[in-house]
Amino acid sequence: RLCELLDNAGRGWRKLAELAGAEKRFKCSVEELEMCSLKVLEPRGSPTQCLLQLLAKRDCTLRYLLGCLERMGHEQACRVLSSAVQDVIRITVQPQSQVVVEGTQVSLTCCATGPPGLAYQWFCGRQEVPGATSPELVINTATPAGQPEWYICRVNCGATFTFSRWAHVQVEKSNSPSAASGYCPTMAGLQILRQPRPCRLAEGDTLALECRAIGNPPPQYQWFRNQRPVEGAQAPQFQVKLVTTAERGSYSCRVFNLFHEVWSQEVDVEIGEGPRQTSVTPHLLCSQAGVSHSVTKPPSLVLAATDKVALLIGNMHYLHHKQLQAPIVDVHALGALLRQLDFKVVSLLDLRKAEMQMAVDEFLLLLDKGVYAGLLYYAGHGYENFGNSFMVPIDAPSAYTSEHCLCVQRVLREMQQRRTGLNIFLLDMCRKRNLNDDVIPQVGVLEVTANIVFGYATCADAEAYELSQGELSNGIFVTFLKRWLLEDEKITVLLDKVAEDMGTLEITRGRQALELRSNLSERRALTDPIRPPGQDESSARNLQWAKAHVLPESRHLHFDCGVTVQLGFAAEFSNIMIIYTRVVAAPKDITKCEARLTDIPEELDVDLKCTNKESPEELGSPLAPVWSLGCPSCCLYSRICGLQKLRQELAFTVCLQYRYQGMDDFVEERQQVNVGRPLIAKLNLQ
Description:
CATH topology of the largest domain: Rossmann fold
CATH class of the largest domain: Alpha Beta
Radius of gyration: 29 Å
Distance between the termini: 62 Å
Mean pLDDT: 81
Helix content: 10-25%
Largest sheet: 6 strands, mixed
Shape: globular
Number of helices: 15
């Protein structure tokens, strides 16, 4: 119907394209407009339909489209579009139940799509919450802890309405039991408030264990029995009805989110009068690497890891060499997959030599004889001389030598000294000879440990290539590696499969082929499970890792004019942070206002063209569609890079500009904000 109205009218599809193009991501090129106009030559072709398809591919919303039609003054088209969606109100973001510490603020969010003019109203139980008419509800939990309060949001447009799911907010006293991990929970961003308790039951009773935590992002749960995951047990409460002696054992709960992980205390559950079933001891699980080759491992015993740690470095923006495109995509893709395998991941982009060395030093602090696997991935420029591989930092001079780079074999020697169970190097770089460097570095004698795996993206004296796919580029190596990384295979078998796949790519055949070097003598895999670590052996390691993953907490800034601004944060990498500002409340006499970031420290890599943008895509990061999923709409976004360069706490200014009804001039208010040392800045790599 819209096509009939807009194809042949004076105020038709060309005017719609012009108005829609006011927002940069919806602007059509001359070629695209010509493509639309040529549709009239097809039997059933429609320029309007072609234009709408282009807008749809760019995630244009019905509300934005309707606004364009209103500005055109096309009342008939507005009625057609409004009537088509009038009865469709869909809740897209449901409020989530939360457990919070007494005295803190908690935010519930409900977002919906539907016809223009959606109205929100929050309820606590059956009572309306006064003034709570926005998608976000901020609750002050200064009231005494007690029974959970239930909240629900109604979304309506005229007489059409729908309700969100119920969400309950449980307020715990601040002296509730904290995490058993032994380190500061506020540093980790994840805190256990309620620990499971040991119990003794008779057969036929109901087993009920509970573990409650708070965190941002919200925590997820996985229950373990005798250090094995319990299938389907992924809620705070674990319940088994009509228990038998088969349920005896030691239970614990792994609590985790995107960046953090803690373990509950391990508790014994005894059923009946028989002896309690004991699990395979951690000592036995960890001792397999030391067993003589003449001893046959029992088939029921699975190698288990006390910890798995990965450092991922991608260098792209070189000062004196060719710029690369793939590392940002490769490091992100590899980091996401390794987190699924329970690796502790630190991912960094664009490091100078001193920063690379400090990052490696911090990585080594995470490794000790209790760590099962240490994985180092590097994507960037590199070379190989006399059997030694070198990673090139972004500040390397045009005629660099080993003095300006990091030697991989030196890193390996230091990893061996940490007694890590499995050392993996994945080097996504060229291995051509460096004619400027004729020095043979003395790295020392490597130990015979039978636990080393090298996966080179290419052979000796060959180059590694990037594969362009539209705006995204992947390295050839990671393009095939990510297909196999989650497979439960010995790491050398997995890399063999990657090599076979790479050999099928015509464009690099004879130019790039994966090379595998290994002296691994046991079946060790990236998928080997992590057993619950003891408090003493893991607390220092967890704290060191957690430091690099602490985002500032979202906060609300209150200005004198009555405007409230939400300041939120998202992590793209361990050294790249997104800051967004959003006006969440404003007096009725203020018609327009926005909050912008200014006075960002000069030492950081901040492109002013990539600050205070209305859409994530305008920041210029190919990963915007990933991290923006967790951000609210109607924000201004800024991308802060190079956090490892911070010499002091990150401080900046939020500048609020607003205009009162009936006035032309804007008024300005400013607030200074200090968010401490976010993410990798806490490790003081300077």
